[in-house]
Amino acid sequence: MWERGQEQRRFPIETRDRLVKEAASTEAWIIEGVHHKWGKESFEHADLIFIISPNKLVRDFRVFRRFIRTRLGLEHANYKQSFKNLLVMTFVWNKGFDRDTMKEILELTKPYEAKRRIVKKNKEILEWIEMRV
After folding, report:
1. Which three-class secondary structure state does DSSP give residue 109?
2. 119 in the same domain as 54
3. Do 78 and 64 belong together in one domain?
C-alpha cells in the first residue's frame, strides 16, 4: 500500500494490486491490515484468514497510547500525529469500524468461512496455529 522511504507515498493502484498478487502467489505469505476491499483476491489464495477484532476500548487505548508515544518521540509514526487525527481515529474511524467495516469484512470473507477465524488477540492466532502443528 505504501512506499516507505524519506517521503511516504501510496503506491499507484496498479503497483499495489500487482504486489498483492505476487505475494499471494508465493508459498508462504501474510497480508496484514484493514485493506479488505482491494485485498479480497488474496482471500481465495489464503490457507487461513484471521480477523483480529479487539474490544473497542482496547483499540481506543492503543490509538491514544500511540498518539502520546509518537508525540513524545518514543515511537515512529508514518503520518503526522495531530490532536484532530486522534479525535478522528477514536470517534470516527474506531466507531465506524464496528458499525460498518467489520460487517464489510465479514461479508467479503463469507465465501471463505471454513478458513476464517475471528480472534480478539494476536496470542489467539499463535495458540490456534500451535494446536494444529
Report:
1. coil
2. yes
3. yes
User: Do residues 31 and 92 both lie within one domain?
Assistant: no
pTM, two decimals, is 0.74
* Confidence label for 64 from pLDDT (cuts 50, 70 and 90): very high
Shared-domain flag, residues 73 and 38: no
Q: What is the pLDDT of residue 111?
A: 93
Identify whether residues 6 and 67 lie together within a single domain.
no
User: Mean pLDDT, the chain, as a whole number?
Assistant: 84
Residue 39 exposed, middle or buried by CB count within 10 Å (0-12, 13-18, 19+) = buried
State whether 29 and 52 are in the same domain. Answer: no
Cα 100 to Cα 19, 81, 87, 128, distances in angstroms: 27, 24, 18, 27
Q: Please count the other Cβ atoms lying within 10 Å of the Cβ belonging to residue 105.
A: 21
Distances (CA, A) of 122 to 10, 58, 117, 118, 126: 27, 13, 12, 11, 7
- What's the rounded Cα separation, in Å, for the pair 100 and 105? 9
Stretch among 28-32, 47-51, 113-117 having the lowest mean pLDDT: 28-32
